[in-house]
Amino acid sequence: MVPLAASLNLNPSSIARMIPQENRTIVGRLAPSPTGGLHIGHARTFLVAWLAARSAGGRIILRIEDIDASRARPESIEASIADLRWLGLDWDEGPDVGGPNAPYLQSMRKLNYQAALDRLKAQERVYPCTCSRAEIARASSAPHPGEEGTSYLGTCAYRRAADAESLSGRSFCWRFRVPFGQIWWDDLVRGMIAGAPHANGGDFIVGRSSGEPAYQLAVVCDDAAMGVNQVVRGDDLISSTPRQILLYLALGLPEPEFGHVPLVLDADGQRLAKRDGSIKLAALRDSGVDPGRLVAILANSCGLAVSRERIRPDALIQAFLFEGIPKAPWIVEMAGSYNE
Ligand code: GLU
What we know:
There is one protein chain. The chain is globular, with a radius of gyration of 21 Å. It has a single domain (about 5-265), classed as 3-Layer(aba) Sandwich (Rossmann fold), CATH 3.40.50.620. The strands form five sheets. Strands 3-4-7 form a three-stranded antiparallel β-sheet. The chain has a two-stranded parallel sheet with strand order 1-2. Strands 5-6 form a two-stranded antiparallel ribbon. Helix 4 crosses helix 6 (about 215-225) and helix 6 (about 215-225) packs across helix 7. The protein has helices at about 5-10, 40-55, 75-85, 110-120, 135-140, 215-225, 240-250, 280-285, 290-300; strands spanning about 25-30, 60, 125-130, 175, 185, 190-195, 205, 230-235, 255-260, 265, 330. About 30% of the residues lie in helices and about 15% in strands. The protein is of the alpha/beta class. Glutamic acid binds near residues 32, 33, 219, 233 and 237. Glutamic acid binds next to loops.
């Protein structure tokens, strides 16, 4: 068994992490969660992810992230595919076109996640945690200035993985031991940026008490298994990236490059919510909006100097540059402007 101290002796900022830059085909992905139709914010992020891979001559995988059975809605899978196709995006592999990395639904890939969790257990990188939500709220550290939230304080971190056997009948999840320190990466949009998972959430969940894998583990397993080497996604996931880098390191998997596209906010400065129907792609489509018009507006918001008339995504490939994407959030233009 790996001594507990050894598993804690991981200082990611001191480990040289190599991301090969040359002689490789970029493999990007679009990874919608089927929890309601896509909105303009998703469209912008997916357009950037698509352009990033295509402008590098790369491949694109469509993966449906339906791991959270309580939130995933099967009808949203087809709706998301229809929304992306309406925008003019395509992909080389996906649930509707097949491919060598099938299946492309996370709900069908659970054995992979279980195998990864078993490896983390064998390495004592994870421990069983029996804390209830209320216990965690009581024991969590208060946020310090500049920190995002509370951190789990490691109440159950004294346990070894094998201790799970003596917990039968009790509900427990699996938490990943987060080392102290900052984790840096060279973000494709933001440049060098760091996160400190120990101060922002602490030891995080990789296996739920329901037995389901958690997002962080599923996404790392899938990206690695599918050969994804470029992850372009929304800014809302930026605090997940250092956690995922820790998982790549622990599992000995090659780390992709990451790019985080700034948030899209509504006119009140609030994050777009899927429940706000007016900015959903399906609503725009139903009201007769030309997708080329939407793509032109999104392209403009990403610093691509194109006419706002109408354009197809493939006409933007040549001009795409990460450097042009503004780092500030984009205030969405509301429904009316897409019909003009
Ligand atoms: N499925 C996630 C979402 O729709 C994206 C996950 C990721 O890109 O890593 O928010």
